[in-house]
Every structure is written in structure tokens, then in C-alpha cells.
Design a protein that fits this description.
By secondary structure, the protein is of the alpha+beta class. The chain has 2 domains: 1-30; 37-133, no CATH class. The chain contains 2 helices and 9 strands, in the order H-E-E-E-E-E-E-E-H-E-E. It has helices at 2-22, 82-89; strands at residues 23-24, 29-30, 37-44, 49-53, 64-65, 72-73, 76-79, 95-102, 127-133. Strands 7-4-3-8-9 form a 5-stranded antiparallel sheet, with helices on one face. The radius of gyration is 21 Å and the shape is globular.
């Protein structure tokens, strides 16, 4: 009986450790090969776009309150490079899927005009996008006929 219990315990632990190789053990979500994070647009300002990052990772400001609406959000950051975002969203309040990096630089795109007025009540955390998509990553699984 003791051997059976120990064998079951070893097998159970082996399965858990094996699953950690296929899962992101910090977030308990499957690794998909896609590292895009959902980023919900909260507000467009003249010089930046403000996002709520919809991930468990603590990237942006916690408990940030938008003074214009009075709403409080978690995990909020802003991006200075507004032109690529506006080209994709056409000014709509949507959720984008992004690969990002933190930055303190004022990054702009030389191919578009950008307002340089300073916004009030902005998050402290600044980000820049390495990749922007309108839809989440698609799995490589193809339907069978």
C-alpha cells in the first residue's frame, strides 16, 4: 500500500513539473508563442494615448483615476507614439493587442504630425509598442474537414 501511495505521489509530481514546461507557471496560462497583451484604450490625449493593460503582469500604474470621467483603473500606462495607434483605431475606443517595452523617451513617428501639448492627469508609466494588432493572436490549429 505504501509503495502504491509513493508511486502515485511521484507520478503526480512528475505530471505537474512536466506541465510547467508547457505552461507559463507564473501566470498559469498556456504558452502560445504569442506575446501580445490586450491594451484597452481609455483616453486619447493630444500628445499620447492612455491604455489599461489587461494582463496579470504589473506593468502600469495601479489605481489610476481618469479625472475627466472619475473612473479608476488598474495597470494603466500611456504611449507617446500616437500616429500608428490612430491609423489602426481611427480614433475609436477599442482594445488593441500589443507587444510593448517600457520607456521614458518621447517617441514619435517622423511620418506624421503630432501634438506637443502637455496632458494633465497622465499615468507615470510610459510604454512604447513594438507590435500592434487589432485582433488577438490566432492559433496555428487549422480546422479539419
Amino acid at each position: 500500500m505504501k509503495k502504491l501511495f509513493l508511486s502515485s505521489l511521484v507520478l503526480s509530481l512528475g505530471i505537474q513539473f512536466a506541465s510547467c514546461k508547457k505552461m507559463d507557471c507564473d501566470s498559469h496560462q498556456p504558452k502560445t508563442g504569442c506575446e501580445l497583451i490586450p491594451a484597452k484604450i481609455i483616453r486619447y490625449d493630444c500628445d499620447r494615448v492612455i491604455f489599461q493593460l489587461l494582463t496579470n503582469e504589473k506593468i502600469g500604474d495601479e489605481n489610476w483615476t481618469d479625472e475627466s470621467s472619475g473612473e479608476t483603473y488598474q495597470n494603466v500606462a500611456s504611449c507617446f507614439n500616437t500616429c500608428p495607434i490612430s491609423n489602426i483605431t481611427k480614433g475609436n475606443m477599442v482594445t488593441l493587442y500589443v507587444k510593448l517595452k517600457e520607456t521614458e523617451e518621447f517617441l514619435t513617428n517622423g511620418d506624421c504630425f503630432q501634438c506637443l501639448a502637455i496632458s494633465s492627469n497622465v499615468p507615470k508609466k510610459q510604454i512604447d509598442f513594438l507590435e500592434i494588432k487589432i485582433e488577438p493572436c490566432q492559433s496555428d490549429v487549422k480546422p479539419t474537414n
